[in-house]
Amino acid sequence: MITPQNFSEYVRIEADEDSGVATIILERPARRNALDRPAAEALSAAFSRFEAEPAWRAAVLFGAGGTFCAGADLSALADDTRRNELHADGSGPGPMGPTRMSFSKPVIAAIAGYAVAGGLELAALCDLRVVEDDAVLGVFCRRVGIPLIDGGTIRLPRLIGLSRALDLILTGRAVSADEALAIGLANRIVAKGAARAAAERLAAELAAFPQAALLADRRSALENSPLDDLAEALRREGAGGYRAVFEEGLAGAARFINGVD
Fold first, then answer.
1. What single DSSP character describes residue 218?
2. Which helix (H) or strand (E) holds 179?
3. Entry pTM
4. Cα dihedral sign for 54, 111, 202, 148?
5. Of 14, 7, 11, 5, whose CA–CA distance to 59 is shortest?
6. Cβ-contact 41, 7 below 8 angstroms
7. Between these two residues, 256 and 150, which has the higher pLDDT value?
8. What whole-number distance in Å separates Cα of residue 10 and Cα of residue 62?
């Protein structure tokens, strides 16, 4: 059963209560899903709702209408009421909405059309990216003098390495789906029009796994892999996974031994 929830005219969640997957949909076709402050705030509210609902075990972020997200709405930049939220000290929410949030559950980007500028930063926020074969990614804000202030300079180097990230960040060039897959920016390539369904299937697979171990491993990869102290990283990995062994692992191992799974 699909349960819809609206957060604004442009942002809604369609949650599949059977699979435990919540699809967060951005639909602002007149602006190619570019976000002004009200739309960014609605997107943050949708992500907060996902994070707070234990029955939703994975999320998909999808831009409807053939474009994932064209970034910040530049037409709002000179409007104090619509300009994306900015603070001189870098505090506050991300200008694009959820980009300074952290999530305890997997989020998958379903990318059709353009994922550029702040839209690329939204994609980089996600754990995985399913990309249609004609999609285009890039730091297109380079062309207009807008910096990456929604995590792009942090997450892109972590995803694809500093050298490749600097290539994209400094040149602002377009990146095809094939190149995105080759450099690790995309995880799957699918046919045009298939990103949402493919991402929802992948999210449902993740949601169907025993959750304690999956979430412990995800958390460890995100939090411990950047640590320079290998011994401490390994200790934290072990401590973080301890409960999952007994909460789910014992029963799962018994089922496997008995040929149930």
1. H
2. helix 177-183
3. 0.94
4. negative
5. 14
6. no
7. 150
8. 12
Looking at residue 157, its pLDDT comes to 98
98: which DSSP letter? G
All residues at 6 or more sequence positions from 77 whose CB lies less than 8 Å from its CB, including other chains? 83
- CA Rg, the chain, in Å? 19
Condensed to tens digits (0 to 9), the pLDDT of residues 58-103 reads 999 999 999 999 999 988 877 778 888 778 888 888 899 999 999 9
Would you kindly state where each structural domain of the chain is located, as residue ranges? 2-208, 211-257
Structure tokens at 137: 């990614």
Confidence of residue 261 (pLDDT cuts 50, 70, 90): low
CATH of range 2-208; options 3.40.50.2300, 3.90.226.10, 3.10.180.10, 3.40.640.10: 3.90.226.10
| Bridge partners of residue 6, in order along the sequence | 12
Element (H, E) at 235: helix 230-244
- Using CA atoms, how far apart are residues 178 and 136, in angstroms rounded to an integer? 10
Closest CA to 35 of 89, 88, 98, 92: 98
Exposed, middle or buried: residue 39 (CB in 10 Å: 0-12, 13-18, 19+)? Answer: buried
